[in-house]
Amino acid sequence: MKISEQGITLIKSFESCKLTAYKALNTEEHYTIGWGHYGADVKAGQTISKNEADALFLSDLQRFVKYTNTYTKNITLNQDQFDALVSFCYNCGPGALKKLVSGRTVREIAEHITDGSYTRSKGKIIKGLVRRRQEEKELFCRGSEVRRMAVKIGSARIDENGKLSGGKAGDQTGKEVSTQDYYMHAKGWYLLRPKSVEDAGKLAAAMLAACNNDNIGYDQSNRLDVISKLGRYGSMAKIAEKTEADCGTLVRGCCIEAGFDPGNFTTAGEGTALANTGRFESKIVVTATTVLYNGDVLVTKTKGHTVIVVSGNARSGSAVPSGRPNGSTAGASVKASANPYPEPTRTIYYAPGKTNMRGDDVKWVQWHMWRFGLFLDGAGHPDASQIDGVWGAASDKALGEAQGLLGLTQDKKCGPKSRQAFKRI
């Protein structure tokens, strides 16, 4: 690819043209001249003409365009994304670009382009670099699926009377413990991201199962009961008695199902409790441009609320196929083994005019449809709410698409062959 005029304009807006050698920072080893030309060939007191500065810029630009093409050859980029990365490379160097993009999806690149290591010089944060990284990120995300991706979160929210306690056990409204569109909390969010994709997938799957189990309701005064019931039944999906949770114990329960117990906590101490498990990256502040991934845990900056991302951007490391145009899936970071529902022993299919098949084994198949990114709402966004245990026309259509993606006969019947194929991915 070639850099466009908008990319050149972005670079020049930060570099400016100076015809006498200078050091932008006292910590820099070499001098800079012209449009940000930096290196051992620039000497103290050196001067050049405007034409020479333009010639140096074009020469440098060709090198950084080449580096960008080399290091992104296995990544599909649009023009905005390519321009942003050339600007990044021009400023930070080819080594930093290679580190930024290696082994990452475009969403992960967008998340990490503003990392602190790219905004510092000799350990000191440079405001100009912060602004440049932010503008590069804005350009990288502009108009792309990175920005359009809808994010769903799951949590224990409020009881059936809109109160913190006093209601009946279990979810009386379908909304006490449920998913919803992501929003920026008035208190702001801290983000705690699982270090492993496997942990992230298990957390997202456990929360989704809890949101789909109407036996789990909200009551702060009986918040620990869900932990007791989880110990008895083994998973959120299998809890068969009416029980209660609050937002903190529900997140703790999801952690237990994922294989580790952070202990009892409230949202005021959640960040410390999760950090002490050693399973999470250091917490960061969520901003309007933060990219959220499946399994991310969000907790308010002060005591308040906590949620888990159940339908967000997919982390790398998965070979899950997708019917989505950009190759992304709602739950691609979730391994097949994380499915919280019982595998069917019958063939699941749709028969128009007859009673729809129902049950938790239906949810097993629907969960895979969600994992493959084939359950979408009217706006084309991932929709975990379609894991409802009722096999209707939407599930029938998604199954046919999944079979096609996997090279199976598209008979829209989920029997042993389809189930084995889903489990292998």
- Anisotropy-based shape: elongated
Uncertain segments are 318-333
Determine the number of helices (DSSP H or I, runs of at least 4 residues): 14
Mean pLDDT: 86
Radius of gyration: 25 Å
| SS-based class | alpha+beta
Q: In percent, how helical is the residue content?
A: 25-40%
Largest sheet: 6 strands, antiparallel
Strand order of the largest sheet: 7-6-13-12-8-11
Distance from first to last alpha carbon: 33 Å
Count of β-strands: 15
The percentage of residues in β strands lies in 5-15%
Give the SSE string. HEEEHHHHEEHHEEEHEHEHHEEEEHHEH
Describe the structure.
- The longest helix has 22 residues, at 50-71.
- The strands form five sheets. The protein has a six-stranded antiparallel sheet with strand order 7-6-13-12-8-11. The protein has a three-stranded antiparallel sheet with strand order 1-2-3. Strands 4-5 form a two-stranded antiparallel ribbon.
- The model is unreliable at 318-333 (pLDDT under 50).
- The protein is an alpha+beta fold.
- It is elongated and about 80 Å long.
- It is built from 14 helices and 15 strands.
Features:
425 residues; three-stranded antiparallel sheet; 15 strands; elongated
Give the topology, please:
Blueprint: H1 5-15, E1 18-22, E2 31-34, E3 37-39, H2 50-71, H3 79-92, H4 94-101, H5 106-112, E4 120-121, E5 124-125, H6 127-141, H7 145-148, E6 152-156, E7 177-181, E8 189-192, H8 197-211, E9 216-218, H9 225-233, E10 243-245, H10 247-258, H11 270-275, E11 284-285, E12 297-300, E13 306-311, E14 348-349, H12 360-371, H13 393-405, E15 413-414, H14 416-424
Parallel strand pairs: 9-10
Antiparallel strand pairs: 1-2, 2-3, 4-5, 6-7, 6-13, 8-11, 8-12, 12-13, 14-15
Helix pairs in contact: 1-3, 2-3, 2-4, 3-4, 3-6, 8-10
